[in-house]
Amino acid sequence: MYNTYTIGELAKILGITAETIRYYERKGIIASIHDQETGYRYYTTWDLHMLIRARFILALDYQLKKQREYSKVSL
Fold first, then answer.
1. What is the pLDDT of residues 4-43, one digit of tens each?
2. Strand, coil or helix: what is 62?
3. I need a surface site. Which of 28, 32, 47, 63 has the fewest CB within 10 A?
4. What share of the chain is helix, strand, coil (3-state, %, to 5)?
5. Which of 36, 41, 12 is CA-nearest to residue 26?
6. Cα-flanking dihedrals φ and ψ of residue 4, to 5°?
């Protein structure tokens, strides 16, 4: 069974805002478990993994764009 985290806990672990987590949820990268009684969103360890992966890919894409930029300048 996966651990679960609130949006605040997940944001703190990753050093990002709760709104960033909601953005990734809207994009379908992660899917929260909604507690009908409290209205809280809960995220699993798998969601944590997917967020780390998405942020890594985003950073890698940024680095590749920068590499291309530098390559064009040196030609």
1. 999 999 999 999 999 999 999 999 999 999 999 999 999 9
2. helix
3. 28
4. 65, 10, 25
5. 41
6. -120, 150
